[in-house]
Amino acid sequence: MAEEKFGSEKEPFPWHLGVFDAHCHPTDTVPSVDSIASMKTRALTIMATREQDQSIVADFANRLGVSKETIPILKAAEKSQGHVVPSFGWHPWFSHQIYDDRTNGPAQKSQTPSKGDHYRRVISPSPEDGDDFIHSLPYPRPLSELLSQTRTFLQRYPLALVGEIGLDRAFRIPGTEMLDDGYENDPTLTPGGREGRRLSPYRVDLDHQRTLLTAQLNLAGEMQRAVSVHGVSAHGIVFETLKETWQGHEKPVLSKRQRKRRASVDAVHKNEDEPEGERGNSEPASPKPFPPRICLHSYSGPADTLNQYLHPSIPADIFFSFSTLVNFSSQSKKAVAVIKAVPEDRILAESDLHAAGEQMDDLMEEIIGTICQIKGWSLEAGVKQLASNWMHFVFGRR
To answer: Name one Pfam family in it (predicted).
Structure first.
């Protein structure tokens, strides 16, 4: 049976209403920044993943970053392109390159693990002494340094997110052997990725991944920033890790009568024109150990797991984004079921592409058309809803 295709061929795509990419990686191909200004997509949420791309994301933000003053332009139903929202984080694929130095006492502060000891501890199966694989890896960085760097970027860019962060049980670290497909280094690609190497048998210890994820979630809570979370073959553990950060901060579950009464009070006092933490004369939201908003990017979990994320006691707003490259690359039945089940105000669209430009626009048009057909939305209604959802996720307001 041929794979089912989605999308509308009759209704013209309403780019003028504003299309927003919730998760992408144009910093993997730096020259593509020059094409952002001519893209149809109004704004890109761009992710950092490793040591080599943190400052590149910052450079993109310096050139094209959104500010509080430009938010009204993003919301206007008019032609406006070339905006980016930066996101700073350390991807689980590179988590082995970090060691946790935060438990050291004052007398141990100058001590760091040897390269071999660190990698044998966080890589499974543990490489043997003298293994060339360990020799090929970079010297690990301290987690405290990573968190300090990320905090500095978040302070410099008040609208920046934390991401891409998360857990991945399936990923294998690239080895030293090159593929037999004539791969040659592409000078336009940012270093630090796979770079044409065969995958090794080694994986990053999941507990180590969780340490880095929790630390970055706590930082996002401290800075009150949204996060973009990667989760592959670890959906239950991702949820448990997130749950641990908001333990003790759960919302009380109200009765129907109590919810109705609270809604009427909120309607009187709520001013949607002010950003979260700046409504009226109130002070910014106090730091918490968990992020205020969480996007599970290219969500590949089953539909029956959604309820745990949408329980009324959860004190964070959880969003689910979808991409053609991940969710509709092969079998799409699971993605269709999940998209049908996700509440209309918690769904996002993304390209997850490594380069800005026409292909990224095409992917955004395709995934939005797919979402709209599955949800039974017109393209106009769907683009408006997805834009509102993106505003809520990124800025904490619609």
So the answer is: TatD_DNase
Whether residue 18 contacts residue 42, with contact meaning beta carbons closer than 8 Å, is answered with yes
Residues 6+ apart with CB under 8 A from 224: 276, 277, 284, 285, 287, 288, 291, 292
Query: What's the pTM?
Result: 0.90
Is pLDDT larger for residue 199 or for residue 106?
199
DSSP H or E segment with residue 321: strand 317-322
CA angle, 31 then 199 then 329, to 5°? 65
Do residues 374 and 10 lie in contact, with contact meaning Cβ atoms separated by under 8 Å?
Answer: no
Summarised one tens digit per residue, pLDDT across range 59-117 is 999 999 999 988 888 888 676 778 999 999 999 999 999 999 997 555 445 578 999 99
Report the pLDDT value the prediction gives residue 184, as an integer from 0 to 100: 53
Q: Using an 8 Å Cβ cutoff, are 332 and 322 in contact?
A: no
Q: How many residues does the chain have?
A: 398
Which residues contact residue 298 at a Cβ distance below 8 angstroms, ignoring those fewer than 6 apart? 23, 230, 321, 322, 323, 325, 326, 327, 350, 352
CA distance 27 to 259: 44
